[in-house]
């Protein structure tokens, strides 16, 4: 299936993919990005909006120039300060879990762990309002820099401890975490609206992480333990 035209627009109103393809790396990013999306679809990605978002956001602008040529391989990459950007398959899987069953954009969504800002940019295409919180100042600032040119007015970057959630934006239609703790902080569950979904890696036993999906219903919280995964640790405090 051919992805639809990119939806991110530059300030001048031209498609971002076309105006930024040559930025720095000399990479013909659109062709390699669409090839990556075709591989994701072949591996099972089904949600059209997630597919479109992955075809639109340029992953190479979120990693160091030296790594740009690897940006469209299905691998995780270092983003500095000991952190990593997840492999595209994992990002697509989490976004698909978050958006499952929805044909309209999600409402307000909270991302814990902005990192380089890549997944936050994808979320901004899938949700009406995105709050993305990062505890490391260096990465918070790098994400701001990476995202500046994209001008995504519905994306709010916050420096803070995501273990506390972000009460100012609550309740959320979705919460997605990019770092794994031994259990899900109870404030995340409380900040989820009824009908909302939370997707987070969790270390259910030492060294064993799994994706956990929580769906909040009027009766309570329904929990499913899904794929075995490997994420950086969720830590408290701001550094
Ligand atoms: N979604 C990111 C992935 C970043 S890796 C991207 O697209 O790049 C996970 C991030 O979670 C790291 O940057 C790490 O610093 C951050 N993190 C870990 N614990 C956190 C916490 N309590 N609050 C906010 N961010 C946290």
**Largest sheet, spatial ordering of strands:** 5-4-3-6-8-9-10
Secondary-structure element pattern, one letter each: HHHEEHEHEHEEEHEEEE
Quick one: CATH class? Alpha Beta
| Alpha plus pi helix count | 7
CATH superfamily placement: Vaccinia Virus protein VP39
> How many E-type strands?
11
- When the domains are counted, the total is 1
| Mean residue pLDDT | 90
Query: How large a portion of the residues is in β-strands, by DSSP E?
Result: 25-35%
Characterization of this structure:
- GO terms for molecular function: protein-L-isoaspartate (D-aspartate) O-methyltransferase activity.
- It holds the Pfam family PCMT.
- It comes from Serpentinimonas raichei.
- With 239 residues, the chain is of the alpha/beta class.
- The termini are far apart.
- It has a single domain, classed as Rossmann fold (3-Layer(aba) Sandwich).
- The longest helix is centred in the first third of the chain and has 14 residues.
- It is 28% helix and 30% strand.
- The strands form three sheets. Strands 5-4-3-6-8-9-10 form a seven-stranded mixed sheet.
- 44% of the residues are buried.
- The N terminus is likely disordered.
- It binds S-adenosyl-L-homocysteine.
């Amino acid at each position: 299936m051919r992805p639809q035209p990119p939806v991110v627009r530059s300030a001048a109103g031209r498609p971002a993919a076309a105006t930024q393809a040559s930025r720095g790396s000399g990479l013909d990013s659109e062709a390699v990005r669409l090839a990556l999306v075709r591989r994701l679809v072949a591996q099972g990605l089904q949600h059209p909006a997630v597919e479109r978002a992955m075809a639109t956001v340029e992953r190479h602008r979120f990693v160091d120039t030296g790594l740009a040529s690897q940006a469209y391989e299905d691998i995780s990459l270092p983003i500095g300060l000991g952190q990593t950007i997840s492999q595209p398959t994992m990002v697509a899987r989490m976004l698909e879990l978050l958006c499952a069953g929805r044909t309209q954009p999600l409402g307000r969504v909270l991302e814990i762990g902005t990192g380089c800002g890549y997944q936050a940019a994808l979320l901004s295409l899938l949700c009406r309002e995105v709050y993305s919180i990062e505890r490391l100042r260096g990465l918070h600032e790098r994400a701001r820099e990476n995202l500046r040119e994209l001008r995504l007015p519905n994306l709010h970057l916050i420096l803070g401890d995501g273990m506390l959630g972000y009460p100012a934006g609550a309740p959320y239609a979705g919460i997605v975490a990019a770092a794994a703790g031994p259990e899900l902080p109870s404030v995340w569950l409380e900040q989820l609206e009824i009908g909302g979904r939370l997707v987070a890696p969790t270390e259910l036993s030492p060294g064993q992480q799994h994706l956990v999906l929580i769906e909040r219903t009027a009766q309570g919280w329904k929990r499913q333990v899904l794929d075995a995964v490997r994420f950086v640790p969720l830590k408290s405090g701001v550094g």
